[in-house]
């Protein structure tokens, strides 16, 4: 009796401590979804979470929440996370022959329905004219199919199997028995089937297929969805690339009896910066010279009396400009024949010399005399920007105006240091900049711009080979801090200002899947910010490297787009291969380090 008297209050007291703490929700494990990476890195700090705390999560590309959105929010309650975080695969519109769909949408969220109707002379597998299918967790509830109505059925060509009869045309209700070869199965999943002839065709189409297509590894810099161990014939997989990368190859591939078709695509890094824009002959001088990046557009105009032929706008795409238009003299084009009567025998002397250029001639040596109508092409020395048309024409003894090669700017780091400034970005390690390019500078640590100089003067434009540097002055040790330093693959949480009081602090966060190393918070101390954190890139599996090294993944759950810095991935040798003599078992458990994975090597077994 005494035992019962004290154990119950003890349980209540213990339970009271837990409830008083109010922590009910552990780290959620979301299939095909993610929360912010720092939650995984500092799980013991954030979890379990307290009641009424909220958490945002994102679904991977190709998946949505139940409401059809890419992002969702969950709330911590006494019963755990509500609603349960889930990511559902989208359903792509299926193919349909001899029928039409009820709407024009190309993808559908979970539980959405799609209705289709068969053309005259065709019907659904159930014998009707119309049918409705629904997007479920594993795809569409049924296959879209419109079958021709007939009084007889013909036995189709059967690959990887054989029929038990030589008969090839069957009346209604007759049966056809067939059997598949080893390693193949019927449409019903068996080795043998006996479909029956119906008005809409065979009850099961005689067909022998492989047991399924093998699983796919993630595309470099991208992902494959859905990720499964194997795929049945007819399954389709859609590829997605990360921001900053473009898809090379087909976005959709399908599982056929002979394997995947077409070949899986790759994701190539998109070049973000374009060279100076092209300037075709007789276009107006492009005065808006600057650095152009992916997506920038530029409008071209022709000089009088030329008219533009083609699209007026050119666009920077993946590091290249789209094809520029031409400027055509419509009057000259219409009266070409009449101009021949006015031609004279006057000749032009040697082409004029242009500083920092050379004459491009792949025909023969330069001449001392040229006939009317001759054309000479100039090209500028490296890093020099051409101003004006790149060709000149001999017209009745005189050359048309030649181009000018504008000199580049060389950033002299020693000279910039005398102004107490340095380049903001060293990512491309450029020292030469074309005329018109803008170089962004910042004051060296401990220095600031004087009040009389605007912040915009740190953006310096290259002008005919000359740079005008702004001067930064020594900062007052008790002065406030300016804008916090930028970090690669991350940024400041919340809004920014240009002035922070002594002792102020701000917080950084990394882009998704990047690992934050260092202090998340930095403080303003004696006019300078303390050292900001580093955002370390994740690792992506390379299907090419795995194939070259004869590797497979050891665990299916490792078939995912990213591995955070510090995470492990385990490999194993492909069939009939073994590890090299110099390797050890630990070499096959590889850790992601600064975005890099060191792949072990497997050698083909002899004999």
Structural notes for this entry:
Helices cover 8% and strands 35% of the residues. Residues 1-20 and 336-344 have low confidence and may be disordered. The protein has 5 domains: 24-89, Ribbon (Complement Module, domain 1); 213-269, Complement Module, domain 1 (Ribbon); 273-403, Complement Module, domain 1 (Ribbon), CATH 2.10.70; 409-533, Ribbon (Complement Module, domain 1); 543-604, Complement Module, domain 1. It is built from 7 helices and 66 strands. By secondary structure, it is mainly beta. The strands form 26 sheets. Strands 2-4-6-7 form a 4-stranded antiparallel beta sheet, with no helix packed on it. A 4-stranded antiparallel beta sheet has the order 10-12-14-15, with no helix packed on it.
Give a quick summary of the entry:
The protein is mostly beta strands. 8% of the residues lie in helices and 35% in strands.
Characteristics of this structure?
607 residues, mainly beta, Complement Module, domain 1, 5 domains, four-stranded antiparallel sheet, 66 strands, disordered N terminus
List the helices and strands and how they pair.
Blueprint: H1 2-21, E1 23-25, E2 33-34, H2 37-41, H3 43-46, E3 49-50, E4 54-59, E5 63-64, E6 71-77, E7 80-82, E8 88-89, E9 91-92, E10 99-101, E11 107-108, E12 113-118, E13 122-123, E14 130-136, E15 139-140, E16 147-148, E17 152-154, E18 161-163, E19 169-171, E20 178-180, E21 184-185, E22 192-193, E23 197-198, E24 201-202, E25 209-210, E26 213-214, E27 222-225, E28 230-231, E29 236-241, E30 245-248, E31 252-256, E32 259-261, E33 266-269, E34 273-274, E35 292-293, E36 297-299, E37 307-309, E38 313-317, E39 320-321, E40 326-328, H4 330-334, H5 336-340, E41 347-348, E42 357-360, E43 370-371, E44 375-380, E45 385-387, E46 391-395, E47 398-399, E48 404-406, E49 409-410, H6 413-418, E50 421-423, E51 432-433, E52 438-443, E53 447-448, E54 459-461, E55 473-474, E56 490-492, E57 505-510, E58 515-517, E59 521-525, E60 528-529, E61 534-536, H7 543-548, E62 551-553, E63 568-573, E64 577-579, E65 589-591, E66 602-604
Antiparallel strand pairs: 1-3, 2-4, 4-6, 5-8, 6-7, 9-11, 10-12, 12-14, 13-16, 14-15, 17-19, 18-20, 20-22, 21-25, 23-24, 26-28, 27-29, 29-31, 30-33, 31-32, 34-35, 36-38, 37-40, 38-39, 41-43, 42-44, 44-46, 45-48, 46-47, 49-51, 50-52, 52-54, 53-55, 56-57, 57-59, 58-61, 59-60, 62-63, 63-65, 64-66
């Amino acid at each position: 009796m005494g035992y019962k008297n004290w154990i119950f209050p003890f349980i209540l007291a213990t339970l009271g401590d837990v409830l008083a703490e109010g922590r009910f929700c552990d780290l959620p494990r979301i299939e095909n979804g993610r929360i912010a990476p720092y939650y995984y890195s500092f799980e013991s700090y954030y979890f379990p979470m307290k009641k009424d705390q909220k958490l945002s999560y994102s679904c991977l590309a190709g998946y949505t929440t139940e409401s059809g959105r890419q992002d969702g929010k969950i709330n911590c309650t006494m019963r755990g996370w509500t609603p349960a975080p889930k990511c559902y695969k989208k359903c792509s519109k299926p193919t349909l022959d001899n029928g039409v769909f009820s709407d024009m949408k190309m993808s559908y969220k979970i539980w959405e329905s799609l209705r289709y109707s068969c053309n005259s002379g065709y019907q659904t597998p159930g014998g009707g004219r119309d049918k409705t299918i629904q997007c479920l967790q594993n795809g569409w509830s049924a296959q879209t199919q419109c079958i021709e109505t007939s009084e007889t059925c013909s036995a189709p060509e059967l690959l990887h199997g054989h029929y038990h009869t030589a008969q090839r045309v069957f009346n209604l209700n007759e049966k056809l028995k067939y059997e598949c070869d080893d390693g193949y199965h019927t449409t019903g999943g068996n080795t043998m089937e006996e479909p029956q002839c119906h008005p809409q065709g065979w009850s099961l189409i005689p067909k022998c297929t492989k047991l399924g297509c093998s699983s796919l590894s993630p595309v470099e810099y991208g992902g494959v969805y859905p990720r499964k161990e194997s795929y049945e014939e007819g399954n389709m997989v859609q590829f997605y690339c990360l921001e900053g990368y473009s898809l090379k190859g087909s976005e959709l591939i399908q599982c056929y009896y002979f394997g995947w078709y077409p070949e899986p695509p790759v994701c190539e890094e998109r070049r973000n910066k374009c060279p100076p824009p092209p300037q075709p002959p007789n276009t107006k001088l492009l005065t808006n010279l600057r650095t152009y990046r992916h997506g920038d557009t530029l409008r071209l105009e022709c000089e009088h009396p030329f008219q533009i032929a083609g699209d007026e706008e050119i666009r920077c795409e993946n590091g290249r400009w789209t094809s520029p238009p031409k400027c055509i003299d419509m009057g000259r084009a219409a009266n070409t024949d009449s101009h021949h009567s006015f031609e004279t025998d006057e000749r032009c002397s040697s082409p004029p010399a242009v500083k920092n250029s050379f004459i491009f001639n792949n025909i023969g040596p330069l001449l001392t005399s040229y006939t009317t109508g001759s054309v000479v092409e100039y090209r500028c020395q490296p890093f020099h920007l051409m101003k004006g048309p790149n060709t000149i024409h001999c017209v009745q003894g005189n050359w048309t105006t030649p181009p000018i090669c504008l000199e580049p700017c060389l950033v002299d780091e020693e000279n910039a240091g005398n102004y107490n400034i340095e380049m903001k970005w060293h990512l491309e390690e450029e020292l030469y900049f074309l005329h018109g390019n803008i170089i962004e500078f910042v004051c060296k640590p401990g220095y600031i711009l004087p009040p009389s100089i605007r912040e915009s003067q740190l953006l310096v434009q290259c002008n005919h080979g000359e740079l005008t540097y702004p001067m930064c002055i020594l900062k007052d040790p008790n002065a406030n801090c300016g804008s916090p330093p930028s970090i690669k693959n991350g940024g400041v949480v919340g809004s920014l200002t240009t002035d922070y009081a002594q002792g102020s602090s701000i917080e950084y966060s990394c882009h998704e899947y990047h690992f934050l190393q260092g202090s998340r918070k930095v403080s303003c101390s004696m006019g300078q910010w303390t050292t900001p954190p580093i955002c370390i890139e994740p690792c992506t599996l390379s299907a090419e490297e795995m194939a070259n090294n004869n590797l497979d993944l050891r665990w299916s759950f490792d078939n995912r787009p990213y591995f955070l810095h510090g995470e492990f991935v385990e490999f194993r040798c492909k069939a009939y291969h073994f590890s090299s003599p110099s390797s050890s078992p630990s070499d096959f458990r590889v850790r992601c380090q600064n975005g890099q994975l060191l792949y072990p090597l497997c050698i083909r077994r002899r004999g």
